[in-house]
Design brief:
823 residues; mainly beta; Immunoglobulin-like; Neuraminidase; 9-stranded antiparallel β-sheet; 6-stranded mixed β-sheet; 10 helices; 42 strands; Ig-like_fold
Length: 823
């Protein structure tokens, strides 16, 4: 028997290394590897990963190289970290390998699924998802070398709920659109930009014509409609789309070389009036993202202007009514155009709702002369809607057309001068004040006025959240002092497949032509009721002493009178509505009310006060009210309400004026535009981002108009509170209202606009990374010889000539890091 110390292989209980080959041992391999390379970092990296990678370690590769010379790659996945919802997160990895890496990739291991951009590279990015509480996301980085050996490492990113991560923009009086640090702003479209191939560039000296093929003035509410590479509907497109925008009114002084001729009474020159008429309405222009940013496409196939002269059709219960009969439409089914388009609405079937606001003032109807030609009922209606101007805003009715026959000017004379309604335009005012549905993807389609939604100073028609099997609703403000909030509920329950129909206006017929119009009553206990405007119910009958209603067409055409009769709550100028896509709560801007006296305050409109230096009293700064439908359904006839925020200067009385505790970072006045981010991206999910825009005169001694970003809570998150108003004579009145939780840092000023502008109109691309914002009437108080703003030229050229005329326009705002705007 041989000695155990001989070289001959043998066995011993103390032996650990039983493999007699010359290959390196496992323990030595680990020791050597860690002595020559860095330790694997992140996640669940272990010695097994360091040695074995993604497969069992082999002694030699297929070329015969031993393991020492051909080790699996060494990878790291960076350190674990944190990010808040909406932030752009970058995953960094490193890899070391002597034999060359063939493939490498990031994959998600756990947590809410995100889209990894650059997943097949060493560096990947993703947008942090929306979460309600801290949520870990685990990612694995794997690299494979030429020998087929792979190694992996993991890292964890903990996502926290959304916050407003930007630093608030300071109040200022700059002639610029100012955005937070880390954001960039570019001008996208402007008044007068050509949207047809053969239209000349805009000279901006008052000599330009053909506004039927140019972007109009006073851009207001806007909406982005996605397009694919073929130029057809694509709701997910973030790089190409149609920008559809309202054009509410005019900076008429800048449209003409030396300002308008013969205002206010006329006679007006035909050419000037045509230009002014065509500069109203709606524009649709294709826009595209390029390497240099966003740009409009002048000859876009879907580019379109809808002006006050564009043919339209009437749909719904008022179609064919004698109330719509004119010399143009003897049967009361057709009309021309849309005017004073302010806020908007949308539908799931991708049509645009444009809303006619202050239309009454365009008509000439000297009441003293015309009232004698009218019935008492007609006088009541015309007076209630304010059709009482001696000349009309721009005296278009004073034009004598060159052809002697055109009625495009005579239609603006609403006097009863003929033998019947079909011999003149006494009923032309009844053809305005409606919600108008437009198919942006079909430029030859005829817009339809949806009369079931009622006639008023429509300030938008925003839909509630759509639920299959439930009748959908649209919420509408009537923008005038002491007017009402309305809701239209369709008679047809929602069918989700209708969202993808190609005959979009036919789907509008299905949901928007039959239903019930309601008006809101806000009760003192924090609840409220929707009161139906239905002919034959309650006071809406022919026996009504104030206004005898003839039929449902009469009720809808004179919705204000019907709401009066039902006892609706007069509000502080109901403007835009917006609906929280996460919970269905409806928000309403009440922009201000100079006639809200101490004796007329109520729980939903609880303030009347003086805001120095003005000596006027009333609710000068406005507030934002919100409501939650009973049962969280659009079909509800009751709701709960509170006041999300009271607008005010931060230096005003915290007990009765600055009730929401606003600071220099978020104080504001006259909230107007209102919009929740799209639910297609993080900003519109879980705790959606709310954008608030202002149209103010009470706060412009401190700052230009602005846009704020908010992460609001929910109805009932605050408490009841007593508010005392004081009159000029010292009389007081105290009411109890319901105030939401103080917004604090969850409300911040995101943007300020140029001089004398209004900020109005907001939307994003579906991914939330491109924010479109409207800038209306900069320099509105100037003259052609002395403009008071040079925007948008001032945005990029601080040396623009002093006589540069300002123009309304749209800007696009992006984060420098490519993340979701606002978060």
């Amino acid at each position: 028997m041989k000695d155990v110390n001989e070289a001959t292989p043998g066995y011993s209980d103390g032996d650990i290394e039983t493999n007699p080959s010359a290959a390196i041992t496992l323990s030595a391999l680990v020791e050597r590897r860690y002595s020559r390379r860095s330790t694997i970092q992140g996640g669940a990296a272990t010695m097994a990963l360091a040695v074995f990678g993604g497969s069992m370690l082999a002694a030699c590769d297929d070329t015969g190289n031993d393991v020492e010379n051909d080790q699996p790659p060494v990878v790291t996945a960076g350190s674990s970290g944190t990010a808040s919802a909406g932030r752009l997160v970058t995953l960094n990895s490193t890899v070391t390998d002597d034999g060359g890496i063939v493939t490498s990739a990031w994959t998600q291991v756990s947590g809410p699924t995100v889209t990894l951009n650059g997943a097949g590279t060493d560096t990947a990015t993703f947008v942090a998802p929306s979460v309600s509480a801290n949520q870990p996301l685990v990612f694995r980085y794997t690299a494979t070398d030429q020998s087929g050996q792979s190694s992996s490492a993991e890292t964890t990113v903990t996502i926290s709920p959304a916050v407003l991560s930007f630093t608030a923009v300071a109040k200022n009086k700059n002639d610029l659109v100012t955005v937070p640090t880390g954001y960039a702003v570019g001008v996208l479209t402007r008044l007068g930009d050509p949207i047809a191939a053969d239209v000349a560039a805009y000279k901006n000296d008052g000599t330009d014509t053909n506004f039927a093929n140019r972007i109009g003035d006073h851009g207001d509410a806007l909406r982005y409609y996605g397009l694919n590479s073929a130029g057809t509907r694509d709701d997910a497109s973030n790089t190409r789309g149609l920008l559809v925008q309202n054009h509410e009114n005019l900076n008429v002084q800048y449209l003409h070389a030396n300002g308008p001729t013969n205002l206010p009474a006329g006679p007006r020159p035909e050419a000037e009036a045509i230009k002014e008429i065509e500069a109203h309405g709606v524009s649709a222009v294709e826009i595209q993202q390029t390497g240099a940013g966003w740009t409009p496409i002048q000859n876009g196939a879907l580019n379109r202007r809808i002006t006050p002269n564009t043919p339209v059709a009437f749909n719904g219960p008022v179609r064919g009514s004698a109330l719509l009969q004119t010399a143009f439409s003897a049967d009361g089914t057709a009309g021309r155009g849309t005017i004073n388009n302010c806020a908007n609405g949308v539908t799931p079937w991708a049509t645009n709702l444009t809303c006619e606001e202050n239309w009454a003032f365009y008509f000439r109807r000297p009441a003293a002369a015309d009232n004698a030609r009218r019935t008492a009922k007609e006088v009541t209606a015309l007076t209630r809607y304010g059709v009482t101007s001696a000349n009309g805003n721009y005296a278009w009715a004073s034009v004598t057309p060159a052809d002697g026959a055109s009625t495009i000017f005579r239609r603006w004379d609403a006097q009863a001068t003929g033998s019947s309604a079909t011999a003149d335009f006494r009923n032309e005012p009844n053809q305005f004040g409606w919600v108008v549905e437009i198919d942006p993807y079909n430029r030859t389609s005829v817009p339809r006025k949806r009369t079931a939604l009622g006639r008023m100073n429509h300030e938008g028609a925003w839909p509630g959240n759509f639920v299959a099997g439930t009748r959908p609703a649209w919420y509408m403000g009537d923008d005038a002092q002491n007017e009402y909030l309305y809701k239209f509920v369709s008679a047809t329950a929602w069918v989700a497949a209708d969202a993808n129909a190609t005959d979009r206006l036919a789907i509008g017929d299905k949901y928007l032509d039959t239903g019930t119009l309601y008006v809101a009553r806000f009760d003192a206990d924090g609840t409220g009721d929707w009161l139906p405007l239905v002919f034959g119910q309650g006071p809406l009958t022919p026996s009504n002493a104030t206004y005898p209603f003839a039929d449902q067409a009469d009720v809808l055409t004179h919705a204000r009178l019907a709401a009066d009769a039902l006892g609706a709550t007069p509000m502080d100028r109901p403007e835009w509505t917006a609906v929280n896509p996460a919970n269905g709560e409806m928000y309403l801007t009440l922009t201000n009310n100079s006639s809200r006296s101490v004796d007329r305050v109520d729980p939903a409109n609880p303030r009347s006060y003086q805001d120095p230096p003005s000596t006027a009293r009333g609710n000068r700064n406005g507030h934002i009210l919100r409501l939650r439908e009973d049962g969280d359904t659009t079909e509800a006839t009751g709701f709960r309400w509170d006041i999300y925020v009271f607008a005010a200067g931060s230096d005003l009385d915290p007990a009765n004026i600055n009730i929401s505790g606003l600071t220099a970072d978020n104080d504001h006045s006259s909230p107007d535009g209102l919009w929740f981010s799209r639910p297609t991206n993080v900003a519109g999910q879980v705790s959606p981002l709310l954008w608030v825009q202002t149209d103010d005169g009470a706060f412009t001694d401190q700052t230009n108009n602005q846009m704020l970003a908010a992460l609001p809570g929910t109805v009932g998150d605050g408490a009841a509170r007593s508010v005392t108003s004081t009159g000029a004579d010292g009389t007081t009145r105290t009411v109890t209202t319901y105030v939401g939780a103080a917004p604090g840092a969850r409300l911040k000023r995101f943007l300020t606009g140029p001089l004398e502008c209004e900020i109005t109109g907001v939307d994003t691309t579906p991914d939330g990374r491109n924010l479109f914002v409207g800038v209306q009437h900069p320099g509105e108080n100037g003259t052609p010889a002395a403009p008071t703003s040079k925007w948008p030229d001032s945005q990029t050229n601080s040396s623009a000539p002093a006589t540069t005329r300002p123009r309304s326009g749209v800007v696009v705002i992006v984060r420098a890091d490519g993340g979701v705007v606002g978060l």
